[in-house]
Amino acid sequence: LHGAPGRETYARVRLSRDGGRSLAEPLLGKSGLLHTLIRAHGLVRVPLGHEGLDQGDEVEVLLFP
Questions:
Q1: Residue 12: closest CA among 35, 32, 36, 30
Q2: How far is residue 40's CA from residue 6's CA, in Å, rounded to a whole number?
Q3: Which of 12, 14, 41, 60 falls between 20 and 30 A from 34, CA-CA?
Q4: How wide is the angle at C-alpha 44 spanned by C-alphas 39 and 50, nearest 5°?
């Protein structure tokens, strides 16, 4: 996931299980696309000042209710 210079970025993710691990898969597309919001389980934040996140990075997921 790429971060935007000068601001926090949030990406929609879908969660799955792989053995004992939880995986967060980014749902790529434009932010206004409704189908990515419907399929998402939550959001991952790319903090201010970070260029992005790499595959395999540990992240915190803000779950949708």
A1: 36
A2: 25
A3: 60
A4: 145
